[in-house]
Design goal:
Length: 248
């Protein structure tokens, strides 16, 4: 983002050619729309997109119109994946196997390097940080191996709503006009309540309402973490993922 900002700032005086502008656009459009950060991330992202587009003469804007329009849309919470469905895994499918001595040993011998790739493929990386890599909408999993057994890790992944960490729980807000929002309160200004309905994009998903219009609020019984994250993994791949989560 720093490099993009610097290159955009150079537009008035640098010797930009059509080929250089296209090369810059190709690189930046892969990065800027997907950048995530804190409360101000959405505003910074939108501002840079606007400045990048303003660098292009009208004919180049027309040439790249479809890509520019796509870049202006918010990024999906979960990354696109072409992985095929394997099966709807349950704890009963896996825990007996993993609890047996040969299988438990297999987890420790699992391919942690492949597990790191699967950590992204299964979308864990979107919300959870592990060894400094990943999002912050959910708990940091760096020390998960010290805090959870293999069975507990599987249960938390397969049944995310069974036990919800209070620090990362969502609230359900009922407003007097009948509308209902689920999210987290991120700020208050006077009587205005600001709720992020997508913890991964607080600024982009913000909903505001007057506190006097709030009829009730209660902890949501459904976790923001979706079910089925392991359903595109094979049994061996699940072992590799667990081996990665248990590595330090």
């Amino acid at each position: 983002m720093i490099y993009v900002r610097a290159l955009v700032a150079s537009a008035p005086f640098a010797a930009w050619t059509p080929a250089l502008r296209e090369r810059f656009l190709n690189l930046a459009l892969d990065r800027v729309p997907n950048w995530k950060g804190g409360f101000t991330a959405r505003a910074v992202r939108d501002s840079l997109l606007h400045q990048m587009i303003a660098m292009l003469p009208p004919e180049e804007q027309a040439l790249h119109a479809a890509r520019i329009e796509a870049a202006r849309k918010p990024a999906a919470v979960l990354p696109a994946t072409s992985r095929a469905f394997v099966q709807k895994w349950t704890l009963d499918d896996l825990v007996d196997d993993l609890d047996s001595p040969p299988a438990a040993e297999a987890v420790h011998r699992g391919d942690a390097n492949n597990g790191r790739k699967l950590y992204a493929a299964a979308a864990c990386i979107v919300c959870h940080s592990f060894q400094g890599e990943g999002g912050r909408a959910g708990p940091d999993l760096t020390t998960a191996a010290r805090r959870y057994s293999t069975r507990d890790l599987l249960e938390n992944i397969l049944e995310p709503s069974r036990v919800i960490n209070e620090q990362y729980a969502l609230q359900q807000y009922v407003i007097s006009d009948g509308k209902t929002f689920t999210g987290r309160t991120v700020n208050m200004a006077g009587d205005t309540v600001m709720v992020a309905t997508d913890p991964n994009d607080p600024g982009g998903s913000e909903v505001r309402f007057d506190i006097h219009d709030l009829e009730s609020s209660a902890p949501s019984k459904v976790s923001f973490m979706p079910e089925g994250l392991l359903d595109t993994l094979t049994r061996d791949e699940i072992r590799d993922l667990l081996a990665y989560l248990r590595s330090e």
